[in-house]
Amino acid sequence: MTHTRIAQEDIIDRYLLRGLPADQVAEFEEHFLECRQCVDALERSEQAIAAIRWGCVSIDTESLRYKARQLVLPWPAFGAAAVAAMVAIYVSVGRAPGPAPGSRSPVGSAVGPGAALRVVELQSMRAGPGRQTKLRATEASAFILRLDLRGLARDSFRVEIVSETGQRMWSQDGMAASAGDWLEVLVEGAPVKPGIFWVRLWGGEADGRAARLREYSLPVEP
Amino acid sequence: MDRGSARSEQQASADLDSAEKYTRLVDRILSNEEGAQQALYDLFGRGLRFFFAHRLYTQDVDDKVHDTFLAVITAIRNKQVREPARLQGYVRTIAQRQLSAYIAESVKRRGERVEFSTELPVTHEGKDPEQETIARQQRQFAERILKTLPEIDQQILVRFYFMEQTVDEICQHLKLSQTQFRLRKNRAKDRFFELTRKAMRRRKLFDQIFLRKPAAAGH
């Protein structure tokens, strides 16, 4: 692998952002194992991206148009567990675009348990705290997660809530109801208590495997 | 000779140099030559450290690097490295095995599936008031520096790294070609990094917050 190719194909950023196909990952890793120039560039870029994301936390991105999607159907690729958990999925009616972030009501005319629940909106990306609505422990028995999907083309998702140590506390599989920029999921029975949790968003790949797409921080206050 | 074939020849020549270098190094380790192990470490140490740090984001990075070197040296001495000229591929394979074994062991230990982040560093907020204050200052500082960049550069950085829009989306929105986007993005990122590092170093905050591997910095 040459440095010209690394520059032209933006391989440093794509590696850091997990956008390289597996064969190129192997090729690039073999290269940078002994390439100080590339390790320097990787370290610099990794730090720069973290810093950029910190700097973006308060940037107003809300001028963009928002639409919401909801997780409404089990996703067969994730197996039978999805079917068993389907009762916990928030059901929407209609495919209308959702309100702008900040709204307390979910998309469309909500039916089921979601109508009066706390909506926790998460806009965090893979690093940095992102922007999020905080959740109180007293509201955690059932709430609606509203996840920023902008830039993601997939329709099949898994949403997981994990503890700080990576322990999975809750998960849900499903299909997005319609195209939109936000995904809304009803979370019921997740054993969250005051502290920091992480919401992981997985998406289905063409080969049926799941790929982790984003991670959002979920602070739970006393 | 056109530029393409000249480049190919240069690459072929570089590959040959590397192959000879690896073969000589393996020979030196086999003959217990003084300094040969250190040479191996010097060659692959930093790369391996980044490899593990990027994949694991744990405190065990140095241990994993060390384990990998031990495994490689043992394999060389047992004459298990059949193609010394492909030593870097062998080192990566061993590192990959170390990584898989570590993950498998951790999963077993925790009794359930655990994901090891291959993501960029995630900073946890809310740990204690001092950390929160530092984090807040950091955000304000980074934001201020971001806003000193030209508007289009700000947009590129925010859209690509924070909002994770695709290159196509950004190029379409900002009316850039993909090459213009890549060059502009990388220049903006470097500029932002330099400005932030310079400013933060003055405040001694940058290393605390952004340099997530202080223990490895000396290697």
How does this structure look, described?
The complex is a heterodimer of chains A (222) and B (219). Chain A has 222 residues and is α/β, with parallel strands linked by helices. Chain A has 5 helices and 9 strands, in the order H-H-H-H-E-H-E-E-E-E-E-E-E-E. In chain A, strands 2-4-7-1-6-5-8-9-3 form a 9-stranded mixed beta sheet, with no helix packed on it. In chain A, strand 8 and strand 9 form a beta hairpin. With 219 residues, chain B is an all-alpha fold. In chain B, 72% of the residues lie in helices and 0% in strands. In chain B, helix 1 packs across helix 2 and helix 2 (36-56) packs across helix 4. Classes of the chains: A alpha/beta (222), B mainly alpha (219).
How much helix is in the residues of chain A? 10-25%
Mean pLDDT across the residues of chain A is 67
Number of extended strands of chain B: 0
Structural class of chain A: alpha/beta
Low-confidence stretches of chain B: 111-126, 211-219
Quick tags:
heterodimer; A: 222 residues; alpha/beta; 9 strands; 23% helix; 29% strand; B: 219 residues; mainly alpha; 72% helix; extended; disordered C terminus
How is this fold's topology laid out?
The complex is a heterodimer of chains A (222) and B (219).
Chain A: H1 3-8, H2 11-16, H3 22-33, H4 36-56, E1 68-73, H5 80-84, E2 118-122, E3 135-136, E4 142-148, E5 156-162, E6 168-176, E7 182-188, E8 195-204, E9 210-221
Parallel strand pairs in A: 1-7, 2-4, 3-9
Antiparallel strand pairs in A: 1-6, 4-7, 5-6, 5-8, 8-9
Chain B: H1 3-30, H2 36-56, H3 61-77, H4 87-110, H5 129-146, H6 151-162, H7 167-174, H8 178-203, H9 206-209
Helix pairs in contact in B: 1-2, 2-3, 2-4, 3-4, 5-8, 6-8
